[in-house]
Request: fold
Amino acid sequence: MLVHVKFFAIFREMVGVKSEPKDIAANTTVEQLWNDYAARSPRIGTIRAAYAVNQKLVQGDCLLHDGDEVGFLPPVSGGAGHENARQAPKPRKQNKSQTKIAPSHSPTRKDAFVTRKPLTASALVKRIEFPGAGAILTFAGVVRDNAYGKQVDHLEYEAYPEMAEQALRDIIAEIHARWADVRVAIAHRIGKLAIGEVSLIIAVAAPHRPECYAASRYAIERVKALVPVWKKEFATDGAHWVEGPIAGELTPEDAEQIAGTTSSQTQSL
Reply:
């Protein structure tokens, strides 16, 4: 049977393949397919990987079927606060009470997107403002000129676009399940970004300040640990991909705990 395989970021560079059709035997798992590539390109076997089938994260024992789209995902861009984890993501049972999405957005609005165009906070705020909002908060991730003691010239972002946008929508759904009256829009830019340019914007509107802060913090923690976006730094010591966690390592509960701590702190402000 035939599957379509995609490589991203450092894996794409190591294997020398962006995407290709691949003939595989019946009952092949995604991990077996990965091991086949790793045997031919040993360097990729030294880097932790997440597996995606038809743009969804799966475990290594997921059986492949004819026509499947298989993505091999290196560690996502992460952030300065993330430590590199060592274990592959494990499937988690979702609480049914967290699957309901508050009908706070118009279905015609696109509140999660990946783009090569410059980002502006005002455009996202227009998507989430509503008369009952007592607080509107925007977070902007900006390209800085240094990292780990080295001078940075510019960054290049790469994404698995369709999967990244779905991951952003999933994060917004998680937020709605936790803070029913909160509205959120998230945009991530890809391509070459100069120092000072905005790579990520999260806009949050809420009736009150505490949940606005908490939802924003929750969103950034989930984005940096779930969304298949990769960052390449061009610094004084050369160009290298920034290694964060592998997609799915930070659970919603972990992010919720961080957001809860933030929320309790902001209530006294």
